[in-house]
Specification:
The complex is a heterodimer. The radius of gyration of chain A is 22 Å and the shape is globular. Helices cover about 90% and strands about 0% of the residues of chain A. Chain A is mostly helical. By secondary structure, chain B is α/β, with parallel strands linked by helices. Chain B folds into 2 domains: about 30 residues; about 110 residues, no CATH class. The longest helix of chain B is centred in the N-terminal third of the chain and has 27 residues. The chains are: A mainly alpha, B alpha/beta. Chains A and B meet through helix 3, helix 6, helix 7 and helix 8 of A and helix 1 of B.
Amino acid sequence: MFSRSSSINVRNIGHHAIDIVLRLGYATRFFALTVLHSGTSFIRFRLIVRELYYTGVLSMIIILISGLFVGMVLGYQGYQTLNTYCSESALGVLVALSLVRELGPVVSALLFASRAGSAMTAEIGLMKATEQLSAMEMMAVDPIARVVAPRFWAGVISMPLLAAMFSAMGVYGGYLIGVVVIGVDEGSFWSQMQSAVDFREDIVNGVIKSVVFGIAVTWIALFEGYDAPPTAEGVSGATTRTVVTSSLSILGLDFVLTAFMFRGI
Amino acid sequence: MERSTLDLWVGLFVIAGFAALTVLALKVGNMGSVSGGSTYQLSAQFTNIGGLKARAAVKSAGVVVGRVSQIGFDNQKFMATVTMNIDSKFKFPKDTSASILTAGLLGEQYVGLEGGAEDAMLANGETIKLTQSAVVLEKLISQFMYSKAAEGNNTK
């Protein structure tokens, strides 16, 4: 009796493990197909422009507002801490470095995953459930080239732009609180920031991070949509999985990238 | 009709994104200053560099003229070798002296160059001979205490 139930448990574990590996392989093949079939979407650039509107432009408001608030919070918290060491003139450095290196790419990618990624999954999942994708295949239109690839490139293009907007807005928010409200010296705020933030080391690395996050988030969102069971439950589950998986992979990838970029000299 | 407004918004989005990147590069980063132009290399050896780090500023008369590119250790002389990238606009005479200074009491450390009087200028790859090491606070305090103790012995 005992041995039988335990053998079923072992079989379940094995089944799950094989399932995970299978899905990973399928996702990798899906990614390769998307990249291979993206020629059409660059020839008909209108397709990408349309998706840029839905993923990029519509995410702009939430990105700008959260950037401003994150910057303002950094202004208050940074001042509070730096004030105990009488070095509040370094507030600009603190705000700019934490935004450009970490918070800008990471928080905007998290927002992007829940704002645009979930919408992508739901849209493609519903397209699959209502058999629009099969209908396309029937008309000899490749759904990967027509539906998936433009969304993928729109996500990859808009993510670094959104992260840059987030960081710029955050620096402005930090300036608003630090200089305008609290009254840190404006000259030292900007000059110390400029001498501490390096273009190659900090800003370009931040952009690289956000491009990687953009690829990861859109890949996960599109794959979950494409792989969703064609039912209402299936689509809702896929949307949840998109947000959870992409948030986790953003944070994990951020650790790996940070370990490579800023391991300390 | 609907298409053109959509294009307008996407265009605005891309412009805003690149504008934000430009603001970050010029206003937040130091893209506008030294890092862009052509540079030449100078090196100097110090007995102690204190807390000097790569990318620290090299200043002459308080003006940033370059950045520290590399810090190494000379195992023959047991000294630190500091390599600096100096902006090509600025030339320094052969008898220039380099010292490691601190901005403020506990601020970050930088290399200070003081021009000499010779006519010949330092060229790419040359070494600055006259150097002065970083002030180590512990040594300073111990020297002060020893001299105080010595004073006390003398007056007895």
